[in-house]
Amino acid sequence: MQAARGIGRHTRREHAGIVRRVRLPRIGQSKLVSTWILITLVASLVAWFDNGFLVEWTALAPERIWHGQVWRIVTWPLIERTPISLILTCAAIYKFGGELAPRWGDRRLRRFMLEIVIAGGVVSALGALVSPTAWSMFHNGGWAVSDALVIAWARQYPNDSIRIYGFLELRGQQLVWFTVGVTTLIAIATSPFVYAPELVAAWGAAFYPRGLLER
Q1: CATH assignment of 10-213?
Q2: What is the spatial order of strands in the sheet that 168-171 belongs to?
């Protein structure tokens, strides 16, 4: 969700809202998060200079998935095509993934994200059967990953807030439905079939069973 990825500052209220502090994850605290950021950085940087080779073989491409290239259901979020999207995706992984990992553990966070990513890939491949545009698309990027992490974080830490673009402060269900709403509006305005990975990530994270999500 593009708006929620423009995060300026995270605050936490303590003692009836009197004290606020900035909290950021410690670098290297989670092996999964560190490896995830490293792979995204390296893969994206290589993709910018390899004449399209990595994008060609990792993108979510429904036509090719239906011809047997099923690994694309998992690999599509690992490459960002622009510097700004790479910065925002890595920041989301570091901030939200970095705070979820100590609470959940790397294994649980990995399972959650794989379920979201695979679901997005499968739904996209199925939806492409009725959408010529989606059938021929090559989709990369971590927008869906960022959405899922933001929503999971908001549900796990409902009393913590983030400030979007410096003026809009949201927490808990406010942040969940803001993220879902913006993603859904963008998808409706363009193509729900093309934006199926983002829609699945946002709605899937919003309705992920609370018993599995919270700890």
Answers
A1: 1.20.1540.10
A2: 19-21, 7-14, 160-164, 168-171
